[in-house]
Write a structure and sequence with these properties.
Largest sheet: none
Radius of gyration: 19 Å
Helix content: over 70%
Order of helices and strands: HHHHHHHHH
CATH topology of the largest domain: Tetracycline Repressor, domain 2
CATH architecture of the largest domain: Orthogonal Bundle
Number of helices: 9
Number of strands: 0
CATH class of the largest domain: Mainly Alpha
């Protein structure tokens, strides 16, 4: 079992190296350089780069769980708004961009790597369950109208994840603005109880002249 402090240092280094180099050009040396440790010491804790990356997905899931826990005291509407912000954040949020870039790099490898695919399935299940819980709590509290949380969560995640992937691969920030605006106007207007409004958090694109790809 890797010491928790050592693991955290290695995971942070992996995160930074993956975001900078991408998975294809990621090397154990690039990770080791960010820890101040030798590559051989890195492999003392992990038998292979693949094993390290599988643990890295666990590390990302732990970060997601921490974010979910941080919102549990909020109302269902605020928790939903926080969930939306997790995907449809502004272009200057470097931390969020780094997280989603790292996940995108790993998703690109999943069709060819069974262990990555299994871990990413766990990640998707965790994200979907978190949103379903928010929607169910909203129904129980009277903040949301009656609906099917399972299908609603599946639809929203597909829309948000698709918007984020498209932005990361094309840099069209206006696409995120359009997806968020449509979701608030068409979905949340119908979802929320009559006396509630969804918090509006405008995304400011880096170039307002950019138009979504068609």
């Amino acid at each position: 079992m890797t010491d928790p402090d050592v693991r955290a240092e290695i995971m942070t280094a992996t995160y930074e190296a993956l975001c900078e180099h991408g998975y294809t050009d990621l090397t154990a040396q690039a990770i080791a350089d960010r820890t101040g440790k030798s590559k051989s010491l890195l492999f003392y804790h992990y038998d292979s780069t693949d094993e390290l990356m599988v643990d890295f997905v666990d590390f990302l899931l732990e970060r997601l769980d921490d974010r979910v826990e941080e919102t549990r005291e909020l109302s269902a509407v605020e928790r939903l708004a926080t969930f939306v912000d997790w995907f449809l954040y502004g272009p200057n949020d470097d931390e969020q961009a780094s997280f989603h870039t790292a996940m995108l790099e790993l998703r690109a490898q999943a069709p060819y790597n069974d262990r990555f695919r299994e871990q990413l399935c766990r990640s998707d299940d965790r994200i979907r369950s978190a949103l379903e819980e928010i929607l169910r709590d909203g129904i129980e509290s009277g903040a949301f109208r009656e609906h099917d949380p399972v299908t609603t969560a599946a639809f929203l995640i597909a829309a948000f994840d698709g918007a984020r992937v498209r932005q990361l691969t094309t840099s069209h920030d206006e696409y995120l603005v359009a997806v968020r605006s449509a979701t608030e106007e068409w979905i949340f207007e119908e979802l929320l109880a009559d006396d509630l409004e969804f918090p509006t958090r405008r995304i400011e694109p880096t170039d307002a002249a950019d138009e979504p790809n068609r």
